[in-house]
From TrEMBL:
PANTHER family in alphabetical order: CEREVISIN-RELATED, PEPTIDASE S8
Active site: 32 (charge relay system), 58 (charge relay system), 197 (charge relay system)
Family the entry assigns: Belongs to the peptidase S8 family.
GO molecular function: serine-type endopeptidase activity
Species assigned in the record: Lactococcus lactis
Gene Ontology BP annotations: proteolysis
Protein name in the entry: S8 family serine peptidase
Keywords noted in UniProt: Hydrolase, Protease, Serine protease
Domain of life: Bacteria
InterPro entries referenced in this protein's UniProt entry, alphabetically: Peptidase_S8/S53_dom (IPR000209), Peptidase_S8/S53_dom_sf (IPR036852), Peptidase_S8_subtilisin-like (IPR050131)
SUPFAM superfamilies recorded: Subtilisin-like
Peptidase S8/S53 domain mapped to chain residues: 84-229
Length: 238
């Protein structure tokens, strides 16, 4: 079995003109582990791992952050389970998940995982999704002051690092990072989590909320938020 070891267990092809009760519907997916069914959103699930009972809180926390404050009537949720509870991804399963995500015509994908090494086949699949219009967001990894992991460091992927109230988190990469989101003091059912895994869905949440509240496309919302964050960073340096 060919496997890639997950080194990061942190956390517009689809038409945004679909309507439900007068509101646009945004189709959002996560490529992650296996979640439980207790959030208010109905999730269409596809698992590519053999033991679907291997539930840990990683996917649960990702969904909690991603859907925070959003209305269920505006969101369709998709989950592609490829990460086992011990943090291993079979490359073939990830390829299948990327293919299925494309056929589901999503607007935005969050992948809270990453690898040290690039992989051409995975890169081509991600490029295909982005070319079709999907916003692909990935956690940058937990390599302090280092370079973002793959696929986050790809040019057409939104690479998300972690920040806290004082600045960039001490565990966050800083190179090949497009934007920093809240990745510390993330609370879920009485526990506290940290990592770029949870910064990534934080940014996904902001993009979705902006798109809905401002009634703009998901692509325009992405550009506005990333550009604003970059301008803030530039202002702090000046």
């Amino acid at each position: 079995m060919v496997t890639l070891i997950l080194i990061l267990v942190f956390g517009h092809y689809g038409s945004i003109n679909q309507r439900r009760e007068g509101k646009r519907i945004i189709k959002v997916g996560i490529i992650d582990g296996v979640s439980t069914d207790h959030i208010k959103f109905k999730i269409k699930k596809r698992s590519y791992i053999s033991n679907t009972q291997e539930v840990d809180n990683h996917a649960n926390v990702v969904w909690s952050v991603l859907t925070d404050g959003l209305e269920y009537k505006n969101i369709q949720c998709f989950e592609y389970s490829v990460i086992t509870s011990d943090g291993v991804i079979d490359k073939r399963n990830l390829i299948k998940a990327l293919d299925k995500a494309k056929s589901d015509h999503l607007n935005i994908i969050n992948f809270s995982g990453g690898f040290y090494m690039d992989d051409l086949e995975i890169e081509q699949k991600v490029n295909g999704l982005v070319k079709s219009g999907v916003i692909f967001i990935a956690a940058a990894g937990n390599t302090p002051q280092g370079i973002a992991d793959f696929p986050a460091r790809m040019n057409n992927v939104i690479s998300v690092g972690s920040k806290n109230s004082k600045g960039i988190s001490n565990f966050s990469p800083i190179k090949k990072v497009d934007i920093f989101g809240k990745g510390e003091e993330v609370r879920y059912h009485g526990e506290i989590y940290k990592g770029t895994s949870f910064a990534a869905p934080y940014i996904a949440n902001k993009i979705i909320a902006y798109s809905l509240n401002q009634d703009v496309s998901i692509r325009k919302a992405k550009k506005e938020i990333v550009d604003f964050a970059n301008q803030q960073g530039k202002d702090k340096k000046d």
